[in-house]
Amino acid sequence: MEEFSKIITEIRQKSPLVYNITNFVVTNISANALLALGASPIMSYAKQEAIDLIKISSALLINMGTPTPDIIETMLIAAKTANNASIPVVFDPVGVGASKFRNEIAQEILSKVKIDIIKGNASEIANLCGVNIQTKGVESNTYIENIADLTKDLAKKHHCIVCATGKTDIVSDGNKVYACENGHEFLTKITGSGCILGSIAAAAAGVCNDYLKATVASCLIVGISGEIAASKSNLLGNFQVEFFNALSTFEPENFKNALYKVL
Amino acid sequence: MEEFSKIITEIRQKSPLVYNITNFVVTNISANALLALGASPIMSYAKQEAIDLIKISSALLINMGTPTPDIIETMLIAAKTANNASIPVVFDPVGVGASKFRNEIAQEILSKVKIDIIKGNASEIANLCGVNIQTKGVESNTYIENIADLTKDLAKKHHCIVCATGKTDIVSDGNKVYACENGHEFLTKITGSGCILGSIAAAAAGVCNDYLKATVASCLIVGISGEIAASKSNLLGNFQVEFFNALSTFEPENFKNALYKVL
Amino acid sequence: MEEFSKIITEIRQKSPLVYNITNFVVTNISANALLALGASPIMSYAKQEAIDLIKISSALLINMGTPTPDIIETMLIAAKTANNASIPVVFDPVGVGASKFRNEIAQEILSKVKIDIIKGNASEIANLCGVNIQTKGVESNTYIENIADLTKDLAKKHHCIVCATGKTDIVSDGNKVYACENGHEFLTKITGSGCILGSIAAAAAGVCNDYLKATVASCLIVGISGEIAASKSNLLGNFQVEFFNALSTFEPENFKNALYKVL
Fold first, then answer.
1. Which terminus of chain A faces fewer neighbouring Cβ atoms within 10 Å, N or C?
2. Which keywords annotate this record (chains A, B, C) (predicted)?
């Protein structure tokens, strides 16, 4: 608990700069989520400044939600530079499984650079494991029986943290497996709540070298904030507003509502 | 009435995947509007995955609000593939009339692929008919005397459904002409309410082969939701929140407030 | 006071078309801010329509928040065309100082086209003056001792208006220097409030030839709207909603709360 508290405290104190190369749907809400937690966002797509931006950043988030060859090239340069500088890289393989193009991008990224945290929904993680799940939109919330094993295996394979979101969020370093139970159905009904989690995980990894803890903390922050928001309103428009209220007022004490276990 | 009710029910039950190639201003709110109604959105710009994404989609929306040659190329590939797969294509010619570039794009799209539903504001529809209306921004709400005739003629010419939005929304298949009177002035004061209508029309066409009915239902859903939102608050910021509340709770019963007639 | 009142009244009456070539993070909120004040927005990135769009626009805003070579090329064409047509050009050098790429873009723009209003946060303005301030994210709010002098010098050098935002917004034409004290800390915690100010300054310059007055009025509109919003809620999510409520109901009377002085 204390370790999670330290993460939110340090994000607010150190205000890590998170360099986001993310999809066009969530640029605004991802930047706002980071600001709400006290982090500093920068969003960019240009390969020409990838090396310079890594120099001033505490973490990198690459999210392939609206992929184009140019953007993927920027991601690879930024991630390789981050690897050399020992800056954490979070990868969100949005929509992998939906097209051969996305499958190839995900494989290219995973083979060419070192990813520290892979965060996807359960069907995306399953797809990365070679399990062919038919993706139905990028907010897919398919239940996958053996997702804990798949998550653990993928983490072992890539020597990184893997997070598979769903009703239960599974987080593993290839050895330990956490199951996080906080959250609310409404989070699946607004676009980009998963993408926001990726950016928050990057902020957390920017202040905490234990990326497993950083990722679990991020799942808890998003899940608990979603619960707080849903407790304030049962309407979807208000929920979005309340979710940002909850993120911006998230304090260490909120972790007392954390629901998680080590499997 | 019952036919419109069936459309909203089936969107919520079947959760059609709507593939959106849309402008950069509305990606987030269009995805959220589709999720609020129970549909599944995917947003993409890459030609490399256009064919694959059509395979898993129930409908395609192409919106030229922020056009670039690359994006237009993707639209043409996606729409041609959709045509071959008998998947409905909705085209929103945002800002046609504002530049020669947009005029040429609109003509290229209309000549190279089969569009099932054209949705624009009245001045955009008039421009497609060769009537030179000076566009004043993309939220233009110019009143055009003979818009019903223009809409009908354009529908006849392109063998498709045409929807011209305005204080009264006109929808025609070239034969029948509907006039839909629901709506609220505030819908013209938030960016993208028209773009959202295009995405919703795609979702509706994804579950209903009668595209005339699907388009009228979409106008009614947006118009009635706007009225509900305006009844909750007379402030523009709150209106946006209430509009998403209304979309997310839209039920068949809401159609009892539908105001439309066949001209 | 009366001169500021006239600006908001004329924006609402004339509804100037503001052509925005802006970053992907703020497209939606910038368009909505302009609509809330009664202006008409058009957002575009394509060089193919830059000349045509200037013909119908009252002002141009170029914002390099998410720069790519293609977009910068469009900005240069649009700005040069605007110069020839005597249409005001507002430049927001977002993130200058964060990368060599952004530094070069800013210098290219300032050397190749005539800018009428430069608006940045204090560290961006200092960077343009050759003072090396380490940028920490694009919402940087670093306090810079001699910002009033730097702002005045930059304005003199480029024969334009310069606005450096911060706790106090400094605006100068190279001769007179205004210090505007309205605003609220929350404006620095939502992404894009500075970008919105740039778009509003363009709208104001589109109806008022005195660009110094237009820029001061814009700072006051954003600052006072921020104060109104913060007085309605002390939560960040609600603040965003209330900020749009405040912009959409901003009236000449609101300037009675203006806090500014000529240094």
1. N
2. ATP-binding, Kinase, Magnesium, Metal-binding, Nucleotide-binding, Thiamine biosynthesis, Transferase
